[in-house]
Amino acid sequence: MRVFKLLIATGLIAAGATAVLAQDLAADREATMKKVGGAFGAVNKMNRGQSPYDGAAAAEAFTTISTSAKHFATLFPADGKAAGRSLPSIWEKKADFDARVEKLASSSAAAATEAAKGEAEFKAAFATIGPQCGSCHETYRGEKP
Q1: Which domains, ranges and CATH numbers included, belong to the chain?
Q2: What is the pTM of this model?
Q3: Main-chain dihedrals φ then ψ at residue 86, nearest 5 degrees
């Protein structure tokens, strides 16, 4: 009987720990996406002429996007589940999702280098990043609740 109670208690603890990890993962996803959104917003304003071009700030923003994209791999593990605005299609088309994330990481890193060279290079680099974000959101992000 003691062994049975111990097994049940262990199972409940493991289930609780899994729930906490899932909540932490969802919170980390949201925080990382907000970080990307802030960085993208900064370069978007520069691109639209709503704030002056600043090569160093643009490079930093693109680096933030690249670093965050690399972190996405840990935020959407193969055995993960949809939470927040993430859709089940992430796991149904995991190879496509992972390829998009890798492309965003490498394109953003390249954009950071280009953005520091001058405004024309910045605008050309920016033009490659926006559509990548948008296409992934269209496919893998749900509507706001």
Answers
A1: 30-140 (1.20.120.10)
A2: 0.80
A3: -70, 140
